[in-house]
Amino acid sequence: MNTIMIVEDEDAISRVLAAYIRKAGFDCSIYRNGREAIEAFDAATPTLVILDVMLPGMNGWEILNHIRYKSACPVIMLTARGDVSDRILGLNEGADDYMTKPFEPEEVVARIHAVLRRPPRSLVSSEQVTFGSIRIDFKSHTVYLNGASLSITPRDLSLLMFLAEHPNQIFYREQLIDKVWGMDYEGSDRAVDLAIKRLRKLLLHWPPEEGEIRTLRGTGYMLYANTQ
């Protein structure tokens, strides 16, 4: 049976979530601090983790980093803060989705189903990837072109990092919004086109024989990379 791990120190929230998740047919376990959650995760990797940001002793970002170091297990972050910068940070750190309190338990269940329908997350085998003269450091969130670091906004960087994790794969605009910016994103899919335009300008001196961001008319985008 699919097991959902809830890491939440507020008893009322965790109990309600667990009740709805079990009603949806999942097994469910609750942990109220980071240390317990990490020990349980290491002992038996769950199907998905629902992870609160504000926890006693160890915050959600630290737990997320531990999970991503060893596993592609899907993670949905919960927080009382709704800042765009927080959502971008969560997605850049490897979260699969992000929900702001208060929320409806039914929506959490819907997001669980949505995340589990996605293709498995691609874990890079190292902390960085290199395609010719471009190097993307996933840990420091830095992009280098010909040895010089590039200045990229967090939102555009999250898009580039996702494409770099999945080179030579095609993604629709709607898929990129869902996978990169999350279901909480409010705006037009035109934002993807504008982000791609800005990234291409930054990568203008990346030799096309090494790679490029390609538009597939009527389909979407992909990061073409010469991996030979």
Automatic annotation (TrEMBL):
OmpR/PhoB-type domain location: 126-225
InterPro entries, per the entry: CheY-like_superfamily, OmpR/PhoB-type_DNA-bd, Sig_transdc_resp-reg_receiver, WalR-like, WH-like_DNA-bd_sf
Keywords: DNA-binding, Phosphoprotein, Transcription, Transcription regulation, Two-component regulatory system
GO molecular function: phosphorelay response regulator activity; transcription cis-regulatory region binding
Gene Ontology terms: biological process: regulation of DNA-templated transcription
GO cellular component, one term: cytosol
Start-end of DNA-binding region: 126-225
Record-linked SUPFAM superfamilies: CheY-like
Residues that bear 4-aspartylphosphate: D52
DNA-binding listed as a keyword: yes
Gene3D superfamilies (UniProt xref): 3.40.50.2300, 6.10.250.690, Winged helix-like DNA-binding domain superfamily/Winged helix DNA-binding domain
Domain annotation Response regulatory: ranges: 3-116
CDD domains reported in the protein's UniProt record: REC_OmpR, trans_reg_C
Protein name: DNA-binding response regulator, OmpR family, contains REC and winged-helix (WHTH) domain
UniProt organism field: Paenibacillus algorifonticola
